[in-house]
Amino acid sequence: MEEQLRALQEKTMEALDRAASTAEIEKLRVSVLGRKGELTGILRGLGALPPAERPVAGQKVNVVREMLTVAMDEKEAKLAEAEMQARFEEEAIDVTAPGETLHRGTLHPLTHVLTQVRDIFIGMGFRVEEGPEIELDHYNFELMNMPQDHPARDMQDTFYINAETVMRTHTSPVQARTMLSSKPPIRMVCPGRVFRSDDVDATHSPVFHQMEGLVVDKNINFGNLKGTLDTFIKQFFGPQTQTRFRPGYFPFTEPSAEVDATCTACGGKGCRICKGTGWIEILGCGMVHPNVLRQCGIDPEEYTGYAFGVGIDRLANIKYNITDIRLLLEGDARFLKQF
């Protein structure tokens, strides 16, 4: 047994000298002093000795155990100190170095435009109304002077949920809901998402954003409409912007008009963006059709009104010179951080 102890002690001390990390020390400790270690095995073999020899042999085993434990602890402490120092050096922080820039998110360009447009109309006395995106055919079409057999329904490319329910194709249903629930005078805008079954390309998307406006009161005329939209366009694009009104068609307004503004890129001189005309189409508008007023419970003999609708995505494209509408919906951080 004494030979076993001496051999184990020498082998362990040699391994201890070679150990280069605290992990190696721990592994050596388990293999020698652990419950299934070599020294423990020798200690369990004491039962085979004569009873008179067991105390002396046990004392010798304990001496070796104590000596190896102390040696391992000392070596482990030195290696732990060295490892800690190496870690400090590796993870050292230069407090004099410039800090890293924290990249912060920005508002989406559609949010910028929507907020600006909304604030302009609020400043002119309009209130903001909202309505459901999943809408009844009755509000989306019929109250907007488009009965079941009306050809204007073909213009809408509608997503039908069932025969009576659609994904709203415009925010005009909010106008109908407002007229049904409020008495004139009415002065409101209704921003929101709308849905049409369009193929996705640079200028079309099945999901886009509109803001429509409605004014109903006594003695409202087309001049009031022109003044309101001219004021809006000048505030949005700048006081130098000019406007023009062209005849148009919408089933829920009569007369109807398309509104153009001088090109923001060339100032009306003609360029690639405006295709050399100097003008860019901005929105559609008109006097509320008497049928719409009548169906919403307002007497067209007593009240008149005007309505208009502007694409928020289109305004963003014009304002920021965005040539592909898909960029507004892809969530690419490289694009969005420009705003």
Textual characterization of the structure:
By secondary structure, this protein is α+β, with helices and mostly antiparallel strands. The chain contains eleven helices and ten strands. Strand 7 and strand 8 (253-262) form a beta hairpin. Helix 1 runs parallel beside helix 4 (54-90), helix 2 packs antiparallel against helix 4 (54-90) and helix 5 crosses helix 10. The two termini are 82 Å apart. The mean pLDDT is 89.
What keyword list fits this structure?
alpha+beta, 339 residues
Gist of the model:
Helix content is 40%, strand content 20%.
Write the layout of secondary structure elements.
Elements: H1 2-18, H2 22-33, H3 38-44, H4 54-90, H5 109-123, E1 127-128, E2 134-136, H6 137-140, E3 159-162, E4 165-167, H7 172-181, E5 186-195, E6 207-217, H8 222-237, E7 243-250, E8 253-262, E9 279-288, H9 290-295, E10 304-311, H10 312-320, H11 333-336
Parallel strand pairs: 1-5
Antiparallel strand pairs: 2-4, 3-4, 5-6, 6-10, 7-8, 8-9, 9-10
The count of β-strands is 10
Distance between the termini: 82 Å
The strand order across the widest sheet is 1-5-6-10-9-8-7
Stretches where pLDDT falls below 50 for ≥5 residues?
A: none
Beta content comes to: 15-25%
Biggest sheet: strands, sense, closure?
Answer: 7 strands, mixed
> Given the C-alpha coordinates, what overall shape results?
elongated
How many whole angstroms does the radius of gyration measure?
41 Å
Indicate the structural class: alpha+beta
How do the SSEs run, as a string of H and E? HHHHHEEHEEHEEHEEEHEHH
